[in-house]
Amino acid sequence: MPARAMMAADQAWAVWRRRLGSAFRTALACAMVGCITLYGPSSLQNQLAFPAFSYVTAVIIVSDATLGDSVRGCWHALYATVQVVPPSMLSLWVLGPARFSSVGLAAIMVALSAFAVALPESTHLMAKRIAFGQIVIVYVGAVIHGDQTGAVMHPLHVASSTALGAFASVLALLLPYPRLACCEVRKLCRLYAENASERINLFMKAFCAQDNPTAVETISQAKPLAETGTKFLQSIKLIQEGVMWERPNIRLLKPGSLNPGERLQEMEMPIRGMEIALTSPSFPVCITNQELSEILLRVELQISLKLEQAKRFPLLETTTAPEMKGESLDQFLQYLKINSATQKCLPAFFFLFCLKLLQDDSTITQNIQPVIDSSQKPKTEESRDSQEQAKYSSKRICTNWHWIPRNETLVFAFKCSLSLGLAVLFGLLFNKENGYWSGLTIAISFATGRQATFTVANARAQGTAMGSVYGVVGCFIFQRFSDIRFLPLLPWIIFTSFLRHSSMYGQAGGISAVIGALLILGRKGYGSPGEFAIARLTEAFIGLFCFIMVELLLQPTRAVNLAKSQLSQTLGTLRECIEEVVLCSRQKEMPTSIFQALREKQNRLKAHITELELFTGQAELEPDFWFLPFRVACYSKLLRSLSKMADLLHFMNYSMELLLQASQRCGPAWMEIQEHMTTDLDIFRKNVASSLKCLEKIALIKSLTVFEKEFQDKKINHNLELGKALKANVCILSTDEEEEKILNSFLQHSTEVTDQIHSNQIEEEPKSQMVLCLSALGFCISGLMREMKDIEREIRELIRWDNPTCCINFYEICHKIDSL
């Protein structure tokens, strides 16, 4: 316990230290901008005419960044400048700065330029945000200064202010020592390896526990570690993008070394499977003794050596990796003399299956070779495979490159264009001298996807107000020491850096708070700080009002309705994945293209689940107004069940590939195995897929009253045309008896086939591996059917909640949907 507590304290300290370091470097970048713009030579200050945008650029780039991220941010700033400055020079030269005294013309030019910047899908969102800010400053500055604005020098001043912010962000990541993405990834890999090792140790203790309370207590200790491990993986995936910008030569390494996030995620899957096995209702089952416990200790030692390799970055292939086979675990299986699996022992065997995956190779499904050895494959087949791979690559490239913008891209571009145009128009009409801030407030807040509009706007408004009040108070306290009034900004920047990670304000509120104070304490020449703060707050509310109105006009659909639609799509994709898995079980050989297509569909399922989670979070933050409250508890349970089913489908894919691999050593007995397995899986598919198809349609029902009316109209029309009533099929929802029957049939057939393998004197190793894979397959079937009942229960709860005045018969609804 002390060692575990020490490890948790080290992980918490690492997170706190990383955030504190990010806050310090943000303060350093802003201090550099402030010193240069406030105390630099007058000739340099004349060129840096917009220090406010230098602060904005620095904060956008340096927040939670590594050196590679800051270099990439400089590239985005340069790209944005190339997109904005030359066209703005041309437009100012053609139209003439004098004509831009018209507020309407400036708003139109801002809208057109923003549309042109937002339309290309290949442009990074950071580059678009910086470009939006430059557009606002260029054209609003032309209105404010009129004839004094040069068609060339004014855009160049905007570009130089942007360059100062980008340069300060890179310099802040270099001093006092560089914060390298490689070092950060290496630290996170080490922390994740320690976390995974501790979880595996707890899981092994729970597996070997001789009493139920000890196992339950041990599993409960691993739950917070699992959440921390997930956060480490997410951080690795975010930070590893900056590695390429620090070390371009790393591209010459093997592909597996470039993406440690994916490699570690593959190691995470078997660990997650071990947790699923231990948390199943029928666990723990004691099948171990002293000798078997010693074997498990050797297995754990081998896995710990593998985790030691995971601490290294880049993740290079080592010479010790091929030697780390599963001899100890194979001895374990042979010692147990596994000849069959019972329903009670399925969780234990699934635990061993995941342990074997983790011990042998977490990427086993990607390294499994086809049934026909490549050395024996004809040259024509090799060339055909290479041609198919080339065709697939070219097809993927073509699909990623959109010659015609998608509807989502057009909506995003039009939203940015209209919001910025209206914000600039009303901001200039209200206060010409401070017309920048209405557009700049929302220029850095656009997101390509749908976002919780009211929540984001509320966080930005509160952040702007807090920052402005802090700036005014700082000016009042240091009014006699104007030269050092920049110093109070440093603790505020550190505070707001932590504020960005809070659930109350998030990125939007934290950035608005730091910029609100920076524009008052880090700038001179705005007159009275109080008057400027009030004017800027008003302009900010004007911009946020335009942002909200445009969002509501272009995307009026509530996040609750989007979550419902996404739930239906997710259930449909889940049904397709289950059907594909069953179809793969009928294959006589192992075509890698089929399993590759299946993995891609399963990845698409996980993408749907991630999007459903996003919509669920947005719907939770969305104001209810006159609507019913959002049932976040039901959707959280649905997300948990869907995620678990997606994991189980991956393990079904693993077990089938390993079964096909082991079948080559079982001779004719494999044909009977496959025949029985296919029959049982077909029954499972019909049961689960039919239920999912029904639930997919039920999830879209908004009102039972409207649904009943549609059904009655359809029934009357059908009776008039054919002279008879609609016939409803039997109830298609799964029952406990059907689930028990399917699982028992599968296990009985598995036992019969393994007995036949034993009678044919097949060697022990493939037989034990085949029984283990069949047991894992049975556990996945049992888990999928169990989660299906949870999904049915939660969707039934949602229907009842959305229709509180109706008497609901869930099975009758299923009959009517099937009839329609």
Can you summarize the main beta sheet? Answer: none
Q: How many alpha or pi helices?
A: 31
Average pLDDT figure: 76
- What global shape is seen? globular
- Helix/sheet category: mainly alpha
**What's the helical proportion of residues?**
over 70%
Low-confidence segments, ≥5 residues, pLDDT <50?
251-257, 315-326, 362-402, 719-732
What separation lies between the terminal Cα atoms? 60 Å
Number of domains: 3
- According to DSSP, the number of beta strands is 0
Percentage of β-strand residues: under 5%
Task: Give Rg in angstroms.
Answer: 31 Å
Secondary structure elements and their pairing?
Blueprint: H1 2-39, H2 42-47, H3 51-62, H4 67-95, H5 103-118, H6 125-145, H7 153-174, H8 181-208, H9 212-239, H10 243-246, H11 255-258, H12 260-278, H13 290-310, H14 327-336, H15 346-360, H16 364-367, H17 379-400, H18 407-430, H19 436-443, H20 453-477, H21 489-499, H22 506-521, H23 529-554, H24 559-584, H25 592-621, H26 632-663, H27 669-698, H28 704-722, H29 736-759, H30 764-802, H31 810-819
Q: What does this protein structure show overall?
A:
This protein has 820 residues and is mostly helical. It has three domains: 24-178 and 405-554, no CATH class; 181-274 and 290-313 and 326-366; 559-819. It has helices at 2-39, 42-47, 51-62, 67-95, 103-118, 125-145, 153-174, 181-208, 212-239, 243-246, 255-258, 260-278, 290-310, 327-336, 346-360, 364-367, 379-400, 407-430, 436-443, 453-477, 489-499, 506-521, 529-554, 559-584, 592-621, 632-663, 669-698, 704-722, 736-759, 764-802, 810-819. Helix 3 (51-62) packs parallel to helix 7, helix 15 (346-360) crosses helix 30 (764-802) and helix 24 (559-584) packs parallel to helix 26 (632-663). It is globular and about 95 Å long. The two termini are 60 Å apart.
